[in-house]
Amino acid sequence: MAEAMIVFENVTKRYQGGQPAVDALSMSIDKGAITVFVGPSGCGKTTSLRMINRMVEPSSGTITVAGRNVSQEPAARLRRSMGYVMQSSGLMPHRSVLDNIATVPRLNGVPKAAARKRAAELLDVVGLAPVLGKRYPSQLSGGQQQRVGVARALAADPPVLLMDEPFSAVDPVVRDELQQELLRLQRELAKTIVFVTHDIDEATVLGDKVAVFAVGGKLAQYAAPEEILRAPANDFVASFVGRDRGFRHLAFNAADAVRLHPVKMVQSAERTVADGGPGEWALVVDADGRPLGWSSPRDGTGLVPGGSLFHRGDTLRRALDAALSSPSGLGVAVDDDGRVAGVLKAAEVLALIEETRQNREERP
Amino acid sequence: MSNIFTDTFAWLADPQQWSGSSGIAVRLAEHLQYTALVMLIASAIAVPIGLYVGHTGRGRVAVVAVAGALRALPTLGLLTLFVLLAGIGLMPPVWALVILTVPPLLAGTYAGVSSVDRNVVDAARAMGMTELQVLFRAEVPNGLQVMSGGFRTGILQVIATVSVVAYINLGGLGRYLFDGLVLSDFPQMLGGSLLIAGLAIAVDLILALFQRLFLSPGASAKPDRSQPAAVDLTDPVTAEAVVQGGTS
To answer: What residue ranges are annotated as transmembrane (chain B) (predicted)?
Structure first.
């Protein structure tokens, strides 16, 4: 078992005269792992997160971080020992990006020059250009602001990071990017991260463990994401993870065994009889062999946009999606340089899925 | 040909009017002194209360009610009352003016603090700032734009109304109004009025300059992309659509 970093013991939060927002929560959060709190609005996931750094005080019960009861520590000092990233970046509008990142070290008494130097390093860690350091938050895009928010949370190198729906206000493409960045960072830093989201996809992508909260502040299931998708503990969890959970579960199986087939490749969508003429789908590639789209067999003119791409090492979910989203029914697989490695077929991916399932059943 | 305007101009241009113990230069200095004294005392009262109410949200209703009531008091009546109660001297009229100046300063300070995005305040606290640090490192710097608006309104009001102290035999530019009235010397009255108005404009310009120099460009940056406007009029396509009444 992993070492516990944060422990909730019978924690209840009741706002004046209402139903409990969090009801007798007991759970233990692993050190050095990402634990995701997920659930619908009003399930108490954010309240639970905010009780860890005493932004909300529990009505009863105790929370310990690294063995120390949080209610025994001065709130301000406790909060400086944990990074906090919120949905709206919450950056200080009047301070430059560098000074925003330097906030907590400055509160801890680090001299200005040293704090700024550290801030500049962090700018690089979160993938922002040094030139952005002198800007003000309002001059950044939403995605850039969230990166600065993450850098600010990391500035004092706290062992614990609390993240309250940090990526929910950015567009899906940027969100995907930020999620991958977070996973990359976590591989290097191994922080204890508590991450709140209402998006089950985000939870399964990021979480080493996922805690599903039900309305009324009850913990409905707390397990590895793969297990939550495969074996929901009850109807609530099953309905929350949604109808696509079977499909989502494919994201936990590697598709290394899927077969790649050769494909007819052409340099231009304008096909002539010399190219073999219309008759079958042909993949249009650029001079370096990177896919551009498809040339239709019906008329052989005009570029048809391609589907999603399958990269080496991707999961069964990506493999199936590549095949299903492709206009030709053939999923395009590319190598690390983005060149076409071959195509894969939906039927073969399904066969592989079936094989994987049988292997699991045969295992003791 | 002589009319009130040329006479006023002649009065203002007369070097004799500018020198001496009751010259315009001395009167201007007196006027500024009274203004500074009133602003100092009023700020000492209004700013701490405004910061407290803005930060905690406590006593908001009381402050709004009291500030509104104080604004309704008639200046001259209040001045006379204070002189009757406390006698002739500098301080009774100053206190009367302080009472009239506290409301705009209080409202400005309170509004400034509470105008700061609650997410910013929440983040400041979550970073581990103490309540005082939240106030002075997050709320005040970002509320300064609104706060200085209240301060400028207040100082303009004081420059204008501090003239009434001349009514009880004190100095300042108000002397020209009351003396002119008694002597039916209208050019002197008009000249005095112009001086007061000129002083108010000059002071406001200086304050605007200070505001520009000392306010963080980030705190007043526009447009704020984190909270996009419902309609972005800087975008030519949208602007055109709005002008023409919709995007069809």
So the answer is: 34-54, 61-88, 94-113, 155-178, 190-210
